[in-house]
Write a structure and sequence with these properties.
The protein is mostly helical and about 230 residues long. It folds into 2 domains: about 110 residues, no CATH class; about 100 residues, no CATH class. Helices cover about 55% and strands about 10% of the residues. The chain has a two-stranded antiparallel sheet with strand order 1-2. It has a two-stranded parallel ribbon with strand order 3-4.
Length: about 230
């Protein structure tokens, strides 16, 4: 089995394929050596490993959290998960309102109140999912709760730094055509074909983000004068 890896900003996209899902696959994109900003991801263990030493910090995708928070409430009747969902959405709304008003941060009192509310929800969650001494929590609800507790700085980074997005939907959107191709065709017949497809998707996604007409850049590439993107930050 092979894995598609991707990295993106609001200006650049790179996609690649590798035969491992872990750190080696991520390194195959050849972006980690120069990446110094905040990386936003879904908390897959490989993202916390060696190779990310230069980054300034991590942020966790809250779209993933909102989806995961549905099950504890709907299937197990746990109250904390609905409260966490509402709190995260309230935080996002307040941040978006501040950005729309031209501000680059929330008032410290607002942030402190949100953090206190977050802590109350987490403590309520542990009351509904009592820790078992000497044993790793097995339920999905408890594992999600642990992540939200132990990585609260990364969960809430969007609240402290308006440059950090609430989700990693940027790369999710860039990968959509890859998933569509897989759904229709079942995959690729060769690694060369997969690499070619992903190189073209990287080229087109980046061109679109930088205001280029995708047909024009494709024609330019076939005529031997490929469009070259402008770089855009770390």
């Amino acid at each position: 089995m092979n894995w598609v890896h991707g990295a993106a900003t609001d200006r650049l996209t790179v996609l690649g394929v590798y035969d491992h899902r872990g750190v080696d696959g991520i390194k195959s994109l050849k972006v980690l050596d120069e990446k110094t900003g905040i990386v936003v991801h879904d908390a897959w263990p490989a993202y916390w490993n060696a190779g990310f030493e230069k980054v300034r910090g991590h942020g966790l995708c809250n779209a993933h959290h909102l989806r995961e928070l549905l099950a504890p409430a709907d299937l197990d009747g746990q109250r904390w998960s609905e409260r966490m969902t509402n709190l995260l959405l309230e935080m996002l709304a307040k941040r978006n309102a501040a950005m729309a008003a031209g501000r680059n941060r929330l008032q410290q009192e607002q942030v402190a109140a949100f953090e206190a509310a977050y802590d109350r929800v987490i403590r309520g969650g542990w009351r509904e999912n009592p820790r078992r001494a000497g044993k790793r929590q097995q339920s999905k609800a408890a594992n999600l709760l642990r992540r939200l507790d132990e990585h609260r700085d990364e969960v809430l980074r969007f609240l402290h730094d308006f440059a950090v997005p609430f989700t990693n939907n940027e790369i999710e959107g860039d990968l959509r055509m890859t998933k569509l191709h897989e759904k229709i065709s079942g995959g690729w017949r060769s690694m060369e074909g997969a690499r070619t497809f992903l190189a073209i998707r990287s080229y087109l996604a980046t061109a679109r983000k930088q205001g280029q007409d995708m047909l024009d850049v494709l024609v330019a590439a076939f005529e031997g004068r490929p469009w070259m993107p402008a770089t855009a930050g770390p």
